[in-house]
Amino acid sequence: MMPREKPYIKSNRQEIPAFAGMTSDAQPVTGNRQPVTVRVAVVGGGPAGMAAVGALAAMHIGVDWYEKEDRVGGKLNNYHQLFPDRVPASEAFGQLVKGTYHNHIDRHLGKAITSVGVNAGRISLNGKDHKIGEADAVILATGFDFFDARHKEEFGYGIYKHVITSADLETVFADGDKLLNVNGSAPASVAFVHCVGSRDEQVGVSYCSRLCCITGIKQAIQIRREYRETRVYNFYIDMRAFGRGYEELYREAQENHGVRFIRGRVSEASEDEQGRIRVKAEDTLMSRPIKLTVDWLVLLIGMSPSCSAVLSGKGEREKSFTNAENPLTGSAVKGQPGVFLAGCCAGPMSIPESVASGRSAAVQAAEYLNKKNGNSE
Fold first, then answer.
1. How far apart are CA 266 and CA 238, in angstroms?
2. Which end is more exposed in the chain, N or C (fewer Cβ atoms within 10 Å of the end residue's Cβ)?
3. Which residues pair with 117 in a beta bridge?
4. Model confidence at 247, in pLDDT bands (50, 70, 90)?
């Protein structure tokens, strides 16, 4: 996505500590370095990757950990608070990264894996133009991409300054910034649009990203907590508050914070002479059209798959997430022995789900290696 000028006031951000400056050549800090006969590669440094790495090291399995950025954490580095309890993202990061300080782990930061290939029982990990490494098994935990909201031209993202995405807004909160108008005043009104890049056949996305609804609820509460006079609207298709504490947070938004939820579709957005955003929508419960003018329009963008590009080796991303060989009981990739999926590689997941998925993939990789080496333990 092209960089956009920030229309809000900037302040100093307190960075989440990322490996305490540890580079790919730094020595691990805990555990005794003992010979290991097999090695598992984990591709991705987000929550699922961190969980997988920690679980493998705890089983005394050698790990090569690849992350394309210069620090681990993935999108967690850009989050402010996590739903439903609004725990600081830095707290979750600290708990996850703690398990990755181990002598069985070799870190390879700034290394982008573009493809994997199985050959004679070994799995090669390749960069754009060359082979980067080999492993006995691989866990793909490359996460997801945010839907590019510019594909929904009717909302004006990238055209109007006061149309932003939920990812942009989360960065505002994480940076300690304020969502202010051009003149420095608090916004009089903010509207959220659900399902941008989810459940939308026009852009080839039929699935639900599952977490957009609760993200909109959490961010709406955050705005109301900061600006008690700001009117906040949520335009939704169906409210899907499925997780632990999600329904309670939905009720809290309405009963304690006065967030207004409107069941309906936004058809278009435009900018008026003052730079405010005109919203045209339909209230599908009341069967009547709605016109609103708000200071900010926030698009709740869905998740797009990223793992398929690595599996195909062609850099081409499919519009559906990668299916495991038997998604009911495991995360092994069909036709690629020793390759396992973790986290949002397999579909939209919350952070707790991604952590559980990463640890599960680690156990499955260990079981695979035991069977492969004739070890029934």
1. 13
2. C
3. 124
4. very high
The vertex-314 CA angle with 309 and 316, nearest 5°, equals 50
Question: Residue 315: pLDDT band by 50, 70, 90 thresholds?
Answer: low
pLDDT band at 32 (very low <50, low <70, confident <90, very high): low
Say how far residue 55 (Cα) sits from the centre of its chain: 21
Domains observed in the chain:
19-143+306-372 (3.50.50.60), 149-302 (3.50.50.60)
Contact 111, 68 (CB under 8 A): yes
Tens digit of each residue's pLDDT (9 = 90 or more) over 290-312: 999 999 999 999 999 988 778 87
Distances (CA, A) of 191 to 8, 196, 281, 297: 17, 13, 11, 5
Confidence of residue 23 (pLDDT cuts 50, 70, 90): very low
CA atoms within 13 A on the CB side of 91: 8
Secondary structure of the chain as H, E, C letters? CCCCCCCCECCCCCCCCCHHHCCCCCCCCCCCCCCCCCEEEEECCCHHHHHHHHHHHHCCCEEEEEECCCCCCHHHHHCCEECCCCEEHHHHHHHHHHCCCCCCEEEEECCCCCEEEEECCEEEEECCCCEEEEECEEEECCCEEECCHHHCHHHCCCCCCCEEEHHHHHHHHHCCCECCCCCCCCCCEEEEEEEECCCEHHHCECCCCCCHHHHHHHHHHHHHHHCCCCEEEEEECCCCCCCCCHHHHHHHHHHCCCCEEEEEEEEEEEECCCCCEEEEEEECCCCEEEEEEECEEEEEECEEECHHHHHHCCCCCCCCCCCECCCCCCCEECCCCCEEECHHHCCCCCHHHHHHHHHHHHHHHHHHHHHHCCCCC
d(CA 52, CA 31): 17
pTM: 0.89
How many Cβ atoms sit within 10 Å of the Cβ of residue 215? 21
